[in-house]
Amino acid sequence: MNMELAFLIPVSVVLGALVLLVVVTVGKKWGQSMQTEEQSKERSEKKANGTVGRTAASKKQTKQQRLRKERPQQHAFSHQLLAASLKAHSGNISSLDFSSNGKYLASCSEDRTIRIWGTKDFLEKEHRCIRANVELDHAVFVRFSPDSRAFITWLANGETIRIFKMSKKEDGSITYIASPEEFSQRHKASVINIGIADTGKFIMTASNDTTILIWNLKGEVMASINTNQMTNAYATISPCGRFVASCGFTPDVKVWEVCFGKGGDFREVTRAFDLKGHSAGVHYFAFSNDSRRMASISKDNTWKLWDTDVEYKKQQDPYLLLTGNYTVVEPCRIALSPDARVVAISCGNDMALYNTEDGKLEEEFQNVHSEDISDLRFDINSRFVVTTGDRVIRVFHNTPGYRAAIRDMEKMLKKASNSCMRQRLQQQIKEAKSALNKVCNSRQ
Prior knowledge:
Elements: H1 2-70, E1 82-87, E2 93-98, E3 104-109, E4 113-118, E5 129-133, E6 139-144, E7 150-155, E8 161-168, E9 174-182, E10 191-196, E11 203-207, E12 211-215, E13 221-226, E14 232-237, E15 243-248, E16 252-260, E17 266-276, E18 282-287, E19 293-298, E20 302-307, E21 319-325, E22 332-336, E23 342-347, E24 350-355, E25 361-365, E26 375-378, E27 384-388, E28 392-397, H2 399-415, H3 419-442
Antiparallel strand pairs: 1-28, 2-3, 3-4, 4-5, 6-7, 7-8, 8-9, 10-11, 11-12, 12-13, 14-15, 15-16, 16-17, 18-19, 19-20, 20-21, 22-23, 23-24, 24-25, 26-27, 27-28
Helix pairs in contact: 2-3
GO cellular component, one term: endoplasmic reticulum
Organism: Polypterus senegalus
InterPro entries: WBSCR13, WD40/YVTN_repeat-like_dom_sf, WD40_PAC1, WD40_repeat_CS, WD40_repeat_dom_sf, WD40_rpt
């Protein structure tokens, strides 16, 4: 018994040692395995985080690149006759207007501002402007008052007229403040133009149905005109302040006289005359500064110049002076210089200048704006023609006007019998030629 016990004790010790060795070995390997697994997991997490970080950075970079591509780029344009590019608006410009004193150019934009530019700065390097804000809306049209101390606007969302009046600050600078009163909403269709008579007696608004409204300055409708043209394409007030005219689906331009009594009281609107001669609907028309000439452009691919200095009350019709050909692409506009010597036509984003003596094309400007030209006007002195169609206003020298003025003075010189008149004309011709040469050589 004692011998068996003595034999079992060493065997038990050996077996215990072996079990302990196995447990330690297995535990060590298990620990190493767990450590390896944790390290592998940590490396995987780091790799995943790195990938996520790179993916996020890549997405951010792609987004920035997309935003840069989507941001509208400044339209590049250059031309020998380009006098200035007026840049201040951050949105597309929809309307322009020169003041009657020739000192200012107004522009309104989708950026909820109206800018008043000084015309004397056109040929300077810097073009200063005064900003007027349109609260909670933006203006579609802007028109100066006859005294150039206020302007009216048509609001896109409010669909009404808002008046801005000039005011001087304590430091002597000028600002424009909106009047609290606004006109009532009377049009049932989209308004295509507004105007204020040079006499200051009435305001006109026209919509693209068949309606033209005549308002007094207090915002009261004095008369409503039905043009009977199915649709109105354009309507405006003549520079003399006597007439309102419209064109549209029919192949003519209809003109009405807005009549007032000697005391200034409104009487009636009567039909004055029509411009008849086109064979298709008329897109646009324009008056000269004295309202004695009109120009029109039609879907029939012609533009026409008219003599409207007629006795319409005796049923005398306007005279057709000139017909020119032009391939019309909508949208299309026409402008007549105040002195009636030059016609400007825009189709799409291109513009062309014609003289009114023989209808000859004298200047062409292609791709003037990044979008279709939205307004086209001459300044009151016929020195410049301005366009807009994006965020920029382009100011061009009216070289056809210079050449036409020189031709007219040379004709007068041949007929002049008075020596003083001859000397004066010779001096004026010399100055006009010098100015033309300066313009033509300034960009070379």
